[in-house]
Amino acid sequence: MLKPAGLFLRGAERCLPLTRHVPFMLQRLALEKSLNRLFAEPLADGAFDILRGCWLRLQVRDLNLAWYLTRTDSGLQVAERALAQVSISGNWGDFLLLASRKEDPDTLFFRRRLVIEGDTELGLAVKNLLDSLDPDELPTWLWSALQQLGEAQLLRSAS
Question: Which domain holds residue 29?
Answer without folding.
Answer: 4-158
